[in-house]
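Students often ask why we bother predicting the structure of a whole assembly rather than each chain alone. The short answer is interfaces. A chain on its own may look different once its partners are present, and contacts between molecules only exist in the joint model. In this exercise we take two input lines together and write out one structure for the complete complex. Read the inputs first and try to guess which parts will touch.
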Amino acid sequence: MYRVIVANKAVLTPWEVSGKIDYDNLVEKFGTKPLNHGDLDRMRDHSGRFHFMLRRGVFYSHRDLDKILDHHDRGGKFSLYTGRGPSGPVHLGHLIPWIFTKHLQDTYGSKLLFQFTDDEKMLLKEDLDETITSHWVHENALDLMALGFDPDNTEFIVNMRHASKLFPIALKVAKKITGSTMRAVFGFNDQSNLGMMFFPSMQAAPCFLESERAGEPVPCLIPAGIDQDPYWRLTRDIARKLGYPKPAQIHGRMLPGLTGTAKMSSSQPETAIYMTDVPELVEKKIEYANVPEDRANCPLFQFHYFLLTESDEEVEWIRDACTSNRRSCLECKIELAEDVNRFLKAHRRRKKLIGKSVETMLE
Amino acid sequence: MYRVIVANKAVLTPWEVSGKIDYDNLVEKFGTKPLNHGDLDRMRDHSGRFHFMLRRGVFYSHRDLDKILDHHDRGGKFSLYTGRGPSGPVHLGHLIPWIFTKHLQDTYGSKLLFQFTDDEKMLLKEDLDETITSHWVHENALDLMALGFDPDNTEFIVNMRHASKLFPIALKVAKKITGSTMRAVFGFNDQSNLGMMFFPSMQAAPCFLESERAGEPVPCLIPAGIDQDPYWRLTRDIARKLGYPKPAQIHGRMLPGLTGTAKMSSSQPETAIYMTDVPELVEKKIEYANVPEDRANCPLFQFHYFLLTESDEEVEWIRDACTSNRRSCLECKIELAEDVNRFLKAHRRRKKLIGKSVETMLE
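Now the answer. The structure tokens for the assembled complex follow.
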């Protein structure tokens, strides 16, 4: 059953719906901390509102967020860091952490470092060259900026073209990682190529970039899916060895896929609605979406819950109309398609307005 | 015995003198080719003179030099590539390949890519930071340019600050190297750090840089000590896999150390005369240099032979004065110290003339 909060302070956990991921278990397994009322109160006080993704537990776990908030309360700055592999269009699932990151930038005035890991994409896929990744870098950067990030407080780092920014730090990181650590943490073996083995050092580097630039500790907060936590644990360990602040994380849950998978994913295109999908395609995708017998596990409801419907009353109405059989699946799907298309249309309009101005940000 | 050529075509091999390195054996062991009369004739024809380092067999072995010369004869361009780890002052031994590289640039109009491997130095030594390596980058770049390289045809690549130039190519290289290859070629093990393991890919990248920039194959020739050959064999293998021309090499012998070691080396400062040594220090170093009982192995003669005395008649006179006991060791040492100080003084004057203009080359 979905429990939606109307009261400010309650944090609900309707995560049984995703079916395949036990989010509470991940907190325990990874040893992260659930966001508690104290954390949520502080963030609400800082921003002046209780962001729906916090209210609904979309972001629900953390490492050292309390230290970041303490630092802020002492008047300190911290950076935000997230990123993406530029190998294709952005889908709705990608937007969840980005929208929340935008909220954090608005609240804390933090600089966002956004990394495009075109290097990793090149290493993973034989057919991806820089012409292709450059196209997606530009397109994806527009998608990010269309969410309203402050262009004066957002820095894109495209690994291949901006390697000089990261390489000196990445080397310091790599100096602290042995082959056997890589084996243990990432499952590499003797036949793994050195590019893939070096890549995590490039991904760690932005955590420390603002500290290097400032010549004093500038903590870094990473809003990301909790599935990425094991990676950042290694970075935290290296931070300690290099004398940088350990990167903090705030962990989110993943938007389920259209087919009921635990996570909307580009590697399974049938699970995803892309920002570039035309209205007819969105309608078709949603029309044919898997709706489970057990309505409590319906992925379509999650689209409202995670992303589209900020009003708790409205979300509650949608849930209730479904579980009480007041509305058919078809009706629900038609309305969701309309909502998604409205969302995509507004997004594309904002992308158009940004237009060429993103190019100077990517130089 | 030293055999010095006065005739143009003979190539002499007085290399028994270095004692500790069997240079002929290295050719066989590494599977390189000795420079033959045909190669030497072609290079002499191209330059209009028979460079003393070729005449004397200071450079004496190669891989694919004939292909480079064929390419030149067809009107093609090739690049030259060498470099240095900027951790201290340059000594006389460093100048041998540089002076020869300058001759190649003059002859073939080739662009020189000169790499400063500040990254490797940082990885190897705990106490070297970028402030220190930057100092030596500047100082060593002056030493290089003081030899007369064409500033419009010479490009410095300081790995840490110019990583963006190399990183995309280095990643392609790293993609073709496995952990087990690194173990086999460089002796790395499970406890080796990833920075050191990635470094050879950064060192390989300049071999392919001009090809990448031109969008067509631009061969690369590496003038270097033959001791570095095993490294370049791996790069040649990767070139094949990536579709770049295999980097060619022309291999030199090493200037012996003052103490009679096979190689003047900064890791044994007592073996070296640095470009920064004051005249009195040079005199002292030479005065106290090891002169072997067996005069045929005198390292001091090699200073004339490798570097200071281009005239074959003069070199022959020096040798003869020694072996016939016409001149004492002390007299010989005093004259060598004068020659070295004259050489260093002229070098420092040229460095001064270049002055700040090297800074723009390093930006």
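Check your guess against this: Residues 1-19 of chain A have pLDDT under 50 and may be disordered.
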